[in-house]
Write a structure and sequence with these properties.
Structural class: mainly alpha
Largest sheet: none
Radius of gyration: 18 Å
Distance between the termini: 17 Å
Shape: rod-shaped
């Protein structure tokens, strides 16, 4: 395994970890917002917690783009 293949594998692992972190953060915030509305009288709906997924989605897309660029340069 050469250096570029190791870099690609590392980026894939990072993207995989970002996806699990995204699910964890969104699920926690959804539950928090749900019970905040039910007991504390918050005014925002629980679906607002999906906004927290946006930075993770951007990071995953950056990882995918980096992998595509590195694979393209490997062929040359």
């Amino acid at each position: 395994m050469n250096n570029k293949e190791r870099i690609i594998k590392t980026i894939k692992i990072i993207a995989y970890l970002f996806s699990y972190m995204m699910v964890t953060v969104v699920a926690f915030n959804y539950g928090y917002m749900y019970y905040a509305i039910k007991f504390d009288g918050a005014s925002a709906p629980p679906s607002v917690s999906f906004i927290f997924a946006v930075p993770f989605i951007i990071a995953i897309l950056v990882c995918v783009v980096l992998i595509k660029i590195i694979k393209k340069r490997m062929k040359e």
